[in-house]
Write a structure and sequence with these properties.
about 15% helix
């Protein structure tokens, strides 16, 4: 009987501690679950060379065992509060909490949208937020899949603001650290559609490649001509055309600093062409166009007249050399 009373007393003494421990573990677990899936809006802010970027999300949930993260309605804004990018849903797999540098991130974005702005000096606003001090940590490999993305393009170079919409579909991005490549289908308002690929180099340069197929360039061409420096437009400023269609490979190099460089090899068809007092109902060009000039063959026709020329144009010096009939 004495032993029984002793056991009862021991249990009575130990029970509060056990209950408190159980309650504490339950509370810690509840707090952990709240951290993993709070079900409330999230707001983060971090510094970049161009100012503090603001990230918000309606909610998120994270599974530390599988490394799966789901974010509902993520949105990224610039220091002035303007939207840079957003999505209806984003999910990430491959997160290693023990050593984040050992992660291999697989990201899916659904219903994405964004804004891309070029300033009057020719520099893209997005470039202001890239770069900064280099981290000594091991770069993390990643790949991103986006079902669709609608991007508002705003170009303030050229004296007036030019705004168009670009729609992207089936986008894939893969890389490690600052090195990445991307590809997808794109349709540009008032221009055309095609497959595009983009590479980002560690230097910050962007290399863009696509193949045009009957792209309509009257609208885009007029804008691009208005953005070129005067020394490159001495020979092309007076050119006007009702319609312009383009077919062939196009390459664009956008350096971290300086003007973009364009290279085109293919054909161009134009109607209603007017150039320094001359007019042509139809004009066809086959050849190459670069930042320095153009070279190839031109066929022009007007009622009762036609001409065929072969030669080249130097944009910078305003020189034209040609031969033909």
């Amino acid at each position: 009987m004495h032993r029984l009373y002793g056991a009862i007393r021991f249990v009575l003494v130990l029970a509060p501690a056990l209950l408190l421990a159980a309650w504490g573990l339950s509370y810690v677990r509840a707090c952990w679950n709240v951290v993993l899936a709070p079900g409330v809006p999230v707001r983060l802010e971090w510094k970049t060379p161009g100012g503090n970027l603001k990230f918000t999300a309606a909610s998120y949930s994270f599974n530390p065992r599988s490394g799966f993260l789901a974010v509902n309605r993520p949105e990224l804004k610039d220091p002035e509060g303007r939207r840079l990018a957003a999505a209806n849903l984003a999910d990430v797999t491959g997160i290693d909490l023990v050593d984040i540098t050992q992660s291999g991130l697989h990201i899916h974005l659904f219903g994405a949208s964004g804004t891309l702005v070029r300033d009057p000096d020719g520099r893209f606003e997005l470039q202001e937020f890239l770069g900064g001090p280099k981290s000594k940590a091991r770069p993390v490999p990643f790949d991103v899949a986006i079902d669709r993305a609608d991007v508002l393009l705003i170009d303030r170079k050229g004296g007036s603001e030019w705004t168009r919409t670009a729609s992207f579909r089936d986008i894939n991005v893969a890389g490690i650290g600052p090195h990445w490549v991307a590809g997808g289908d794109v349709e540009l308002e008032n221009a055309g559609s095609g497959r595009i690929s983009v590479s980002h180099l560690a230097s910050g340069d962007l290399a863009l490649r696509t193949v045009a197929s009957n792209w309509t360039l009257a609208d885009l061409g007029r804008h691009l001509l208005s953005t070129l420096p005067p020394d490159r437009t001495r020979s092309v400023e007076p050119i006007e055309a009702s319609t312009v269609t383009l077919s062939g490979p196009v390459e664009v190099m956008v350096p971290a600093k300086g003007e973009p460089e364009v290279r085109f090899d293919g054909s161009l068809d134009a109607t209603g062409v007017r150039l320094r007092g001359y007019a042509a109902s139809n004009l066809k060009f086959a050849g190459r166009v670069t930042a320095g000039g153009a070279a190839g063959a031109v066929t022009a026709s007007a009622p009762g007249e036609s001409a065929q020329l072969t030669g080249w144009v130097d944009w910078r010096n305003g020189r034209v050399t040609c031969s033909g009939s």
